[in-house]
Design a protein that fits this description.
The complex is a heterodimer of chains A (434) and B (313). Chain A has helices at 7-26, 50-60, 75-86, 99-107, 115-119, 158-163, 174-184, 198-203, 220-234, 241-246, 253-258, 272-275, 318-329, 333-336, 350-358, 362-365, 368-377, 391-406, 412-430, and strands at 37-42, 65-70, 93-96, 135-138, 141-150, 153-157, 190-192, 262-267, 287-290, 304-311, 342-343. In chain A, the strands form two sheets. In chain A, strands 1, 2, 3, 4, 5, 10 and 11 form a seven-stranded mixed sheet that branches. Chain A has a four-stranded mixed sheet with strand order 7-8-6-9. Chain A starts with 6 loop residues before the first helix and ends with a helix. With 434 residues, chain A is α/β, with parallel strands linked by helices. In chain A, α9 crosses α19 (412-430), α15 (350-358) packs across α17 and α18 packs antiparallel against α19 (412-430). By secondary structure, chain B is mostly helical. The longest helix of chain B has 32 residues, at 83-114. Chain B starts with 23 loop residues before the first helix and ends with a helix. Classes of the chains: A alpha/beta (434), B mainly alpha (313). Chain A binds chain B through residues 1-3, 6, 16, 20, 24, 27-28, 75, 79, 82-83, 85-87, 100, 104-105, 107-110, 241-243, 245-248, 392-393, 396, 399-401, 403-404, 407, 409-410, 429, 433, and chain B through 1-2, 13-14, 16-20, 41, 46, 58, 60-67, 78, 144, 147-150, 152, 168-174, 258-263, 273, 276-279.
Chain lengths: 434, 313
């Protein structure tokens, strides 16, 4: 039988603990690569723009090397980036795509304050705009810059619209949108996939919160939106939510639009790539763009400034990192355009952007002018949320209650009351710590 | 450890209280198990200890080790007052409480059927065992298609029998959990049957012969001979399946992501949400600790009940 631990065992244990300590200490490490090498982590595949952008930066600054690492922009990919950031992996510049991740990273001091640097760069003055922010502001400081505009739009099946004798709207209200969707509803197809986010249209940024930071779900627009959507689903005007859940369609809406299961689609420019890919998404109709409808209470587009670029405060190369960030936002935009990224500063020619968004045979698949009008000429009103208190918890509560309400198992009143209660509890619980 | 590293070639065991020096065979033994030991230490022991420590902290991972803030037992008091936690406990109890006994029952029935001399018995055993070794993703995707409310085979068959108002399965908060239970039973009963089949080999044939000679019918033979001989296996299956099911995560993550609403947010998925979607790692660790204590208590209760039953018999 074993006796007590020997000196050797004790020594071994101590060494083990030491090794563990060393491993943990790595978590506090800083940049280890060469002072002329910049490590950038982003979610866009290199071949969709970042590769060419990096080459252009290196050509302009041959003394530097940029290593671009792509992470998949999903839960696991973001977890990988977060682990790398806090674990001391050599990352100088990185991208944040969801506001849930933004809440964590900016709130945990993983974003360098770049306010002074922006103030010193005249061409970046739009990022200092606090009325219509294009950056993530926290305590009066800018910690992330939006690199792209992501306006929403209503993509219409033009053939269905013309067959119904309808004109493509250049401006319309929510009521007119609903009426159009009703007309387009047939025995075999629905008018629209889902309603535009009417509360967001009316309330704009931070719409989940009152000015005091409390839950804002007692605002009547939320209940009206749930109620109207549910009624329109019952009428067959909107896509049945049971099908959405059963087919896990939220991530694959394009498949149902391509197969003409609905005629109007509230979406963003990244969806357009499916519509000119006739090989993988064969279809025969042309598509056109209409603006997001407006309401009595507002005209926010519901789209965002996004794809935030941030500098890791642990980096030892803040100046080089800032040089690269500045390049990405200004001269670098032209290289991201082929991947469909509309730059925040709109510093890429509109025709070039349309070529990128609508593919090589644009006229075959799109009413090109409608996309020019809706995405660019109309200058849609985009937003950036800045209050991210308990953001993941509230997001989940909204999605859960939306689902049970729209499949008809819970009344809109009960669903909104439940969201309000959960949001209030989450804000109360986590608000102080965030 | 001493039992592993004290082969017969070593000298007499040391007197109590004396230190024993490691001889060459000991070192070789240690070297053999060292890789496994390191793996267990790194991937089991360290995480286990970490979870215990984290349960007393407020930590979101992104803030790094420096962001760990010890908050005493706050996480535990919050867990016990959290209606979402208790909701997930209730769903886990239903999920495990229905699927495990039915899996065991159907596995036993299957084993009794396959224990007879029927044609194709080997092939049938393989077929029923197959779901146990097929990947969860393949099972999930197949059932997702089968249980589509409008175009799935299950509802089409039910409709062919004249049934109306058919279940919405994964698109219904009333039917999603029953659907998961059906899949859990389907994929687990083959495993239970194989375990029972091996137990049936040990059933005393002489007792069966004697009972038959005494005129005992099939039910009486089952009740007085088969069932007692299968009792230890039944307890084993109940305990292992209960532990496995209460930790069940794959099917929920794949098929429903806890929804619709929170209809299928079982404990393991709630813990995942808290940790990996909300990054509340301290709170998730506390949920894990409470879950561990609960599962351990129920497991011990089952084990004690079986031991008491065996002693009474």
């Amino acid at each position: 039988m074993p006796t007590g631990p020997s000196r050797r065992h004790v020594l071994g244990g101590a060494l083990g603990l030491g090794a563990l300590g060393a491993l943990t200490a790595c978590g506090q490490g800083t940049s280890t690569s060469s002072a002329t090498t910049l490590n950038v982590w982003g979610g866009v595949p290199p071949e969709s723009g970042p590769g060419a952008l990096v080459e252009a930066f290196e050509a302009a600054h041959p003394e530097y090397t940029v290593v671009y690492t792509r992470f998949i922009n999903d839960d696991r990919g973001n977890l990988k980036l977060d682990t790398a950031l806090q674990g001391g992996v050599d990352i100088d510049v990185y991208f944040t795509y969801s506001m849930e991740s933004m809440a964590l990273r900016a709130g945990s001091g993983l974003a360098l304050d770049v306010t002074d640097r922006i103030e010193a760069a005249p061409e970046l003055a739009p990022f200092l705009d606090t009325e219509a922010p294009k950056a993530y502001w926290q305590d009066g400081q800018v910690s992330a810059l939006a690199t792209t505009r992501e306006p929403n739009m209503v993509v219409a099946n033009l053939d269905r619209l013309e067959a119904a004798g309808l004109e493509l709207p250049t401006e319309w209200t929510v009521e007119e949108f609903v009426e159009t969707a009703r007309i387009l509803t047939t025995d075999g197809a629905h008018g629209c996939y889902s309603m535009p986010d009417v509360p967001r249209i009316g309330l704009g940024p931070n719409f989940w919160f009152t000015p005091d930071g409390d839950s804002n779900f007692s605002e009547p627009l939320f209940l009206e939106h749930f109620t109207r959507s549910r009624d329109l689903i019952s009428d067959g005007v909107l896509f049945p939510w049971t099908e959405v859940l059963a087919r896990q369609l939220e991530a694959y809406q394009q498949n149902a639009f391509i197969s003409e299961e609905f005629a109007l689609w509230v979406t963003a420019p990244f969806s357009l790539r499916y519509l000119y890919d006739a090989t993988n998404y064969p279809h025969e109709f042309r598509a056109a763009a209409a603006p997001i409808p407006t309401s009595d209470t507002g005209s926010w587009n519901t789209g965002v400034f996004g794809n935030f670029v941030m500098i890791n405060p642990k980096s030892t190369k803040h100046d080089l990192a800032w040089q690269f960030v500045r390049f990405w936002i200004t001269e670098g935009s032209q290289f991201m355009a082929p991947g469909g990224k509309i730059p925040t500063l709109q510093n890429v020619d509109t025709d070039q952007m349309l070529d990128s968004l609508l593919g090589p045979e644009a006229e075959d698949w799109f009413d090109v002018e409608s996309f020019r009008r809706v995405l660019f000429d109309d200058d849609p009103e985009l937003f950036v949320d800045t209050n991210l208190t308990a953001f993941p918890e509230i997001t989940l509560a909204v999605e859960q209650q939306r689902d049970v309400c729209w499949i008809g198992e819970r009344s809109p009143e009960d669903a909104i009351a439940s969201i309000d209660a959960q949001a209030t509890a989450a804000i109360e619980r986590y608000g102080r710590r965030n | 450890m001493a039992t592993v590293t004290a082969p017969a070639v070593t000298s007499a065991p040391p007197a109590p209280g004396n230190r024993r020096r490691l001889g060459p065979p000991d070192r070789v033994g240690w070297l053999f198990i060292l890789p496994n030991l390191v793996g267990v230490a790194l991937f089991t022991f360290v995480p286990l200890v970490s979870v215990v420590i984290l349960a007393f902290t407020d930590w979101n991972l992104v803030s790094g080790l420096g962001g760990i803030e010890f908050i005493g037992v706050d996480n535990f008091t919050n867990v016990l007052a959290d209606p979402l936690f208790w909701g997930s406990v209730g769903r886990t109890v239903v999920y495990a409480g229905v699927s495990v006994p039915l899996t065991v029952l159907l596995g036993m029935a299957l084993a009794l059927a396959l224990d007879r001399d029927i044609p194709g018995r080997g092939a049938l055993r393989a077929v029923f065992f197959m779901p146990y070794i097929v990947s969860t993703v393949a099972i999930g995707m197949t059932w997702l298609m089968l249980m589509n409310p409008s175009s799935g085979l299950v509802n089409q068959v039910l409709g062919a029998f004249g049934l109306t108002d058919l279940p919405g399965w994964f698109a219904s908060s009333y039917w999603a959990l029953p659907a998961l239970i059906v899949i859990a039973i389907w994929s687990g009963m083959g495993y239970a049957a194989v375990i029972y089949l091996s137990a049936l080999q040990d059933a005393p044939t002489d007792l069966y012969e004697a009972a038959e000679m005494d005129g005992a019918g099939p039910w009486r033979r089952f009740r007085t001979i088969t069932w007692p001989s299968l009792l230890p296996t039944t307890v084993f299956l109940l305990v292992t399946l209960f532990i496995g099911t209460s930790q069940g995560f794959g099917l929920v993550a794949l098929l429903t992501a806890g929804g619709p609403g929170d209809a299928t947010t079982v404990l393991s998925f709630y813990m995942y949400q808290t940790g990996f979607q909300f990054y509340r790692f301290g709170y998730a660790a506390a949920i894990g600790m409470v879950t561990f204590v609960g599962v351990l208590a129920l497991t011990l209760a089952m084990w004690r009940a079986q031991r008491g039953k065996a002693l009474n018999d």
